[in-house]
Amino acid sequence: MSLVLLAISLSVALGVLAFRFAVFALPVMAGIAAFLEVQDGGSGFGLALLAGVVGAVVSIGLVIAILGFARNPFLRLAALGLFAVPAAVAGYALAHGIAKHALDPGVMLTLLSGTCGALVALAAIINLNALGDGVLEP
Predict the structure, then answer these.
(1) Nearest-10 Cα torsion for 53, 90, 128, 114
(2) Rounded Cα gap, residues 61 and 40, in angstroms
(3) What are 59-101's pLDDT values in tens digits?
(4) 15-51 burial string, b = 16+ CB within 10 Å, else e?
(5) Domain membership flag for residue 129
(6) d(CA 87, CA 74)
(7) Tell me: the pLDDT tens digits for 99-136?
(8) For a designed S-S bond to 132, which of 65, 67, 97, 113 qualifies (C-beta 3.0 to 4.6 A apart)?
(9) Apex CA 19: angle with CA 102 and CA 82, to 5°?
């Protein structure tokens, strides 16, 4: 019985961890792209790792700067959408990868995965909007 409870608690913990990682899908994608580009250019692993970290930080900083300085709501919404679309794709893939073993392929699996993707995108928008408002306000 305790092994079943351990498996359930670890599944929940991994789900929460995967949700937190999916929210920050854009910086991860930007960091991986910068890492691969520098690595393919012939540089070493250390320089490529540094370029990946800088790429991830710059992507977050750019979106936060747009949220902090732009007063046009459409520009702010575009910046939030740029951050939320990769998060939605990651949330969809996360739910689909887990639920495909429990549900038959079809409408229910697609609806469940789409709902999870929408929730992850909404969480990414809320987290980034709060971060952008909190960082740049006096």
Answers:
(1) 170
(2) 25
(3) 888 888 888 777 788 888 888 888 888 888 888 888 888 888 8
(4) eeebbeebbbbbbbbbbeebbeebbeeeeeeeebbeb
(5) yes
(6) 20
(7) 888 777 888 888 888 988 898 888 888 887 777 666 65
(8) 67
(9) 115
Sequence-distant (≥ 6) Cβ neighbours of residue 28 within 8 angstroms: 21, 56
Is residue 7 domain-resident? no
C-alpha radius of gyration, the chain, whole number: 18
Domain-located, residue 100: yes
Give the total number of structural domains in the chain: 1
Please tell me the pTM assigned to this model: 0.74
The size of the chain, in residues, is 138
Q: Which domain holds residue 75?
A: 16-136
For residues 134 and 138, what is the distance between their CA atoms, to the nearest angstrom? 8
10 within a domain of the structure (yes/no): no
Quick check: helix, strand or coil at residue 129? helix
